[in-house]
Every structure is written in structure tokens, then in C-alpha cells.
Amino acid sequence: MAGKKVLIVYAHQEPRSFNATLKNVAVEELSRQGCTVTVSDLYAMGFEPRATRSDITGALSNPESFSYGVEMHEAFKRRALTRDIAAEQKKVQEADLVIFQRKLALLSLTTGGVASMYTKAGDNGDFRYFLWPLQHGTLHFCGFKVLAPQISFAPEYSSKEERKAMVASWAQRLKSLWQEEPIQCSPPWYFGQ
Amino acid sequence: MAGKKVLIVYAHQEPRSFNATLKNVAVEELSRQGCTVTVSDLYAMGFEPRATRSDITGALSNPESFSYGVEMHEAFKRRALTRDIAAEQKKVQEADLVIFQRKLALLSLTTGGVASMYTKAGDNGDFRYFLWPLQHGTLHFCGFKVLAPQISFAPEYSSKEERKAMVASWAQRLKSLWQEEPIQCSPPWYFGQ
């Protein structure tokens, strides 16, 4: 939808990967719709994933006993977070839609195993089970409305044609993404009744 | 049990934290039993959590298109993993018991929220839900027999007496840890029938 801001949080190292293709398709389709698309390419940025006191500039509010949660809250209020964190927070705040594009995370993800392994009877259990901590515990908790995940199962074990079909289905979905209703992000969605 | 090797994987920054106390209690009790206890203190070691090509020394088997899984498997076979990873793998291999001591991970963990929030009807859902990806998807998948988790709920919001009781209950459990049967690590344990 023209004028919308989209942030794609992308975490894959190889520009020639299937993941990269899915990300590129999203950039192209959404830009074509007139959206402003920003990509946070975490590996390329060397984004620091460790949560440490280095995330805070200046003095700590309680240097005697370090509590990451308390210090981050204080630092957020006095704008004392490091520049890389503040920059990502700004992108999230400004975005109308955030797409997380990575292996085994959410919204748009690829799996190692085939679809049958991610069913209630499969070795990995229903794919919704592993979405719970991130999609519900993190995104929903932080106030996101969550759209249905886009799961591309086992590109590694799929034929070239199957991979093409997965990319096409993603591209097709993106065309009408703005008309989608968010999922009912509550336990029954994940675990049934 | 005398002669057993225990590895504690510990991830907390503050030596005066409740987490540190739980870790110290485990070191003391298990050493008293005659176990050899090793602690991998991930923050203190500055352990690198990013999975990148820097984990591999020497040439890649396919530099054209980097696949972390493939390259790590090859590097493992030809002993070309970086020293920090090889060292941790050796510790895990030699250990009879591995205790993961960190926030929101497994076996011995502390939570931010109180116990009622981690029930089926609570905001966070049953605490077993968030154990699924790590305890089942990672530990069980890698061949561990998994002991019941030790969950210390909301030490931040507990009284000094309550925290003492949590530490005491952990210390008490450690005394007979070697007689425990592993849990039945399968979907019913996590999600019921």
C-alpha cells in the first residue's frame, strides 16, 4: 500500500541463499506497491546480539549490582542506549509492518525439516509450538498485531521447481498483505483447545 | 556422586545475582559429593554467540555459497572448528551431567514473571511451552536425557525469605540428583494429551 513503511529484519549470511531470495522478493513487491522498505541485514551489520552493559552509555544507575532490565529501562528514558540499538528501535517505531526474515523465527521463515516433521505427530511437533516464545512471548507481548507466518518448508530438500513455487506463493501473498487480518494470537492458535 | 563430571553452562553477568547464587550452590553441593565440576561462564568468557563463518578455520568446502550447517559439519570432521567451540564441545562430551543455568533457558532457570503467569490460563502460557524449542528441540534432539527443569519463579518480586527457600530447595534437590529419572521428553509432557 503506497506510503506505508516496512522494515525487514533479515538474518542470513549468504546473499545467494533461498532466504535472501525471499527477502529480495519482498523488497521488490513492496517497493512496487509504493512502500518505503528498509532492510536491517543483521549479519552484514555485524549486529551485536549479546545483551551486556556495553549497550548502555554513561554511568549505570546501580553499578553495585548490575540488572540488565533495570539499566536498559533507565537508559531508554534518558536516551543513553548505544547508537546501534537506538537506531533499530527507531526503525521499528516508524514501521507500519515489520517482517522478520530469518531461519526459525517468525512471519517469514524457512525450516530445515520437511513439513510432515512439523505436525503434532512429527518429530518436531506442530510448527506453531516453536512460534510460541517468539511470536507470542516477544511480538504479541510487545504490542505487535501478528500476521500469519509464512513458512517455506525445507528448501534444501526441495526441487528447483518447488523452491520457485514457494517464492511465487510469497510474492503472491505480498500483493494483498495489507488486507490481511492479524491472527488471534492466543494459546488456542498455538496449542488447540 | 563421586567421580561424576558435571558441566554448568552459566549465563548471567552479575556475580551478586540470584542466578549466581544458584550456580554457586550447585558447585558447592556437587563438589562436596565428589563430582568434578566445570563452569562455562559465558559472559565472563565473552563467548561469541553469533554463528558465522569465523567459527571455521582454514578454507571453506564451498566458498561460492556459504551454508553454515554444511561447513560446520565438514569443519567438525577435519577438526577445523575454532578453539573456543572445540573446547566447549569437549566439555559437553566429557560431562555426565550438564546444567544450563541461565535466565529463560532450561533445567535451572529463573523467570521474570510470577508462577501464575506461567500456567495454561496465564499471560505467558504454561511454562512448559517455552521449554519446548530448547529442551526438546535442542537438548532432546542432541541426545540428552533431560531431567525435570528447576524453575525459580520471579526472584525479583520475592521476599528475601522466599529467595532463600528457592535456593534451599535447589540445594536439597541436588543431594539426590543422581537418583532422578529423566522426564518423558515428548509432546504430552509439554502440551498434555
TrEMBL record, chains A, B:
InterPro entries: Flavodoxin_fold, Flavoprotein-like_sf, NAD(P)H_dehydrogenase_qn. The keyword Oxidoreductase applies. It comes from the Eukaryota. It holds the Pfam family Flavodoxin_2. SUPFAM superfamilies: Flavoproteins. GO terms for cellular component: cytosol. Keywords: Oxidoreductase. One of its GO terms (molecular function) is NAD(P)H dehydrogenase (quinone) activity. Residues 4-101, 103-174 form the Flavodoxin-like fold domain. The keyword S-adenosyl-L-methionine does not apply. Belongs to the NAD(P)H dehydrogenase (quinone) family. PANTHER family: NAD P H OXIDOREDUCTASE-RELATED, RIBOSYLDIHYDRONICOTINAMIDE DEHYDROGENASE [QUINONE]. This is Ribosyldihydronicotinamide dehydrogenase [quinone] isoform X2. It comes from Octodon degus (Degu). The gene is Nqo2.
